[in-house]
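sry for the spam today, last one i promise. struct tokens for design, 310 residues
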């Protein structure tokens, strides 16, 4: 047995909520450089470019990371980390932590099995709820990650709080919710790709006694979930990143952003940064789901120990 053993007491909604947010933060800490590389590759080819970054060319995941370290220093790989952690505590807590509760809500009373449609509906619901609440943190995170700043060069924002203030002042409060629609679309797809796939793979592995409910099972299910999510969500993810990073007036809306990409760069532009997306989403899913399962068990054990008489 690897890790904590499954408990007889099911985790409460509050335990799942807190565990999901914490696990999301752990996963972000481990995979943030890959996410930053993904953003840089996705925005490469945009018509707008800063004087600093217009001649920068990124090639591949590790080439992008090496270029960033050489030009901007190693800390550039973690630009936007604070906003990223803020995002996970609000975002992952809702979309992952509330998934089981919403799934049970949608499951007809007396039904022994949960249909795939019900799982998909639950995934879309929690994904949309999470984006609505956490969109400002995502906008700030992407702005930090996309900004090219050579060593010693001027900063675009003086910290995370300043970024929120600056965007709200220059673009209005609605600027903090820029790209909400493509982000809701993306995260509905990602949520279904991640949670439903993880749910189904894990259920199948346990049902047919291929694995027991421990680390290897969680690892396999999470890896499969990461790959499925990357394949289906990459086009929407690229559009979301481009639109959220754009200057006011550059694109009329997310649809215009998508059409501009097709005309200027061709349909392959929708899969720019696919490899870092998969490396990031695959590894993020593995770290997150493994941490999530262990944190749930740890919190249940802590709760039992707290409630037990001394």
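last one done:
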């Amino acid at each position: 047995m690897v890790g904590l053993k499954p408990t007889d007491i099911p985790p409460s909604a509050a335990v799942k909520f807190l565990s999901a947010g914490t696990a999301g933060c752990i996963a972000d800490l481990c995979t943030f450089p890959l996410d930053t590389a993904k953003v840089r590759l996705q925005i490469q080819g945009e018509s707008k470019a800063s004087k600093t970054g217009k001649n920068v060319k990124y090639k591949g995941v590790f080439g992008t990371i090496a270029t960033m370290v050489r030009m901007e220093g190693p800390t550039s790989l973690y630009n936007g980390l604070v906003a990223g952690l803020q995002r996970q505590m609000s975002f992952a807590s809702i979309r992952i932590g509330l998934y089981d509760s919403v799934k049970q809500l949608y499951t007809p009373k007396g039904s022994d099995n949960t249909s795939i449609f019900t799982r998909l509906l639950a995934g879309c619901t929690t994904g949309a709820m999470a984006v609505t609440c956490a969109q400002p943190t995502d906008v700030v995170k992407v702005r930090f990650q996309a900004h090219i700043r050579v060593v010693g060069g001027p900063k675009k924002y003086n910290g995370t709080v300043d970024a929120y203030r600056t965007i709200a002042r220059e673009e209005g409060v609605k600027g903090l919710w820029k790209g909400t629609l493509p982000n809701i679309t993306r995260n509905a797809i990602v949520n279904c790709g991640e949670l439903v796939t993880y749910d189904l793979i894990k259920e199948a592995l346990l049902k047919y006694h291929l694995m027991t409910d421990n680390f290897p099972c969680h690892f396999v299910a999470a890896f499969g979930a990461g790959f499925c999510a990357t394949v289906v969500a990459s086009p929407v993810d690229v559009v979301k990143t481009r639109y959220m990073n754009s200057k006011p007036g550059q694109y009329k809306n997310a649809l215009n952003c998508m059409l501009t990409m097709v005309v200027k760069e061709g349909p392959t532009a929708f899969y720019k940064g696919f490899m870092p997306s998969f490396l990031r989403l695959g590894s993020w899913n593995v770290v997150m789901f493994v941490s999530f399962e262990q944190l749930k068990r740890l919190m249940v054990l802590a709760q039992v120990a707290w409630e037990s008489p001394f």
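The longest helix spans residues 274-307. ok im logging off now
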